[in-house]
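Quick one, T. Sequence first:
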Amino acid sequence: MTEHAQWVTMNDGVRLDVSVHRPDGPAPSGGFPAVLLIHGHGENGSKAMTAERARRLVSQGYLAVCYSVRGQGGSEGLSFHLGAREIYDLQDMIDWALALESVGKLAVCGSSQGGWHSWMAAIHHPGVTCVVPENIFVDYADFAVPEGALSTWFFTRTMRRRVMSAGLQDMARQWATEGEWARIRTWTAPSSPRHFVGRIRCPVLVIHGWHDVGMPANNLLSMMEALTVPWMLYLGGGGHDGQDAENAATFRQQLVDRWLAHWLKGEDTGLLDQPRIHYARRPAWDHLATDRLVGEQADVRYLCVDGSLTAEAPTAATANTNLNNLTRDPTYDLSRAIHTDMAGVLDAWPREEQGFTGPVSETASELLGIPRLVLHTLPATPHYQIHAELLDVAPDGTTTLISRGHAASRAATAGRHLRLEIALRAIAYRLPAGHRLRVVLTNTNPAYVVPLCRPWRARIYHEVGRASRIILPLAG
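Structure tokens:
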């Protein structure tokens, strides 16, 4: 193969650093099947991150084009952090790649920032044959400010990396500390793939991991069901954070290989005859397939004031549970948390938990879909953040996080009853016999959401007519 580096000039004069990886020998009739690869976001993000993948594609007969996004790697310009300017560059790069003498059909692939570019290629360029978005949100506003709270990932990673920024990093931190959270959502929303689902005209294979700290699969599932083009979805191992398994990585790679071979080379890989959703069921990472990631039945468990989690609904009045957010350091405010990547936040605003544990399971069961927690509450202040965690408790007491979610507000009516519904992250999980389920409610979970850094208190109710509960989607 040959690898050739060069500058490609965008329509505003900025030059991007591009490499073309080409198989040796003459192009086949109709040109080489080609793949445009875009790397992930970050201060070290560049085309070098995709070089190994490009060489692997060339060994399979593809021509691969890699480029560094503006403001990253060797490319000129300033980063708009998945904004309109990156879309213009993407369109220019697709046109440039399709104009290469030896190129036939073209796919766009990438992970994280590159996954967003893959979605945008399907939305904004009719010349693309297929796309493979990997490990990326489909709603930018929900990624930045999910369920009324500030995303830890957005502020400590996307907005804190030393990228050559055009200004969004500074503005986002300013808006966060001034309480202008709606402006963050307004700025990021137009770059959300889910808003343009009707414009997608090429086949889409999405690869996504259960473990992405800032990117749950919930919005992705609803978007996939709205597509009118051929699509497939893999959910399981991989993603930005968390554990993986060798069989999961191999399975993902095989799916991508078969997808590209079908749409770019015209090979009959048999992939489209299978169910559209492939998923890895935790914790063993065994792979299954379905057309809808929805449990066939619901198992309702009630949160009781004595700390139990039962299948029996309450029949009488009971005491309530209190959840508090209290500080050891009143000087530790939101501005300090944002500007220090939350260093020392749990020392200043300690975690408080209320736990509810179920009985030992006599048989194995499989969670499949989105667990939903219904809480009957009474907040003492307009602001609160209630976090929920669903845990697997093994016989030896070891706990494993199955899923989590939260609900937050800055405009509740203090002293008035409030019914909250928290959608936990979609998951496929097998609970073995002999294990227990445990629900934990807590005031803070800084791995996912920036704490409010303001005192608050909420009551959680368990009585008849106000029975807090979790609804578990179970496979048949």
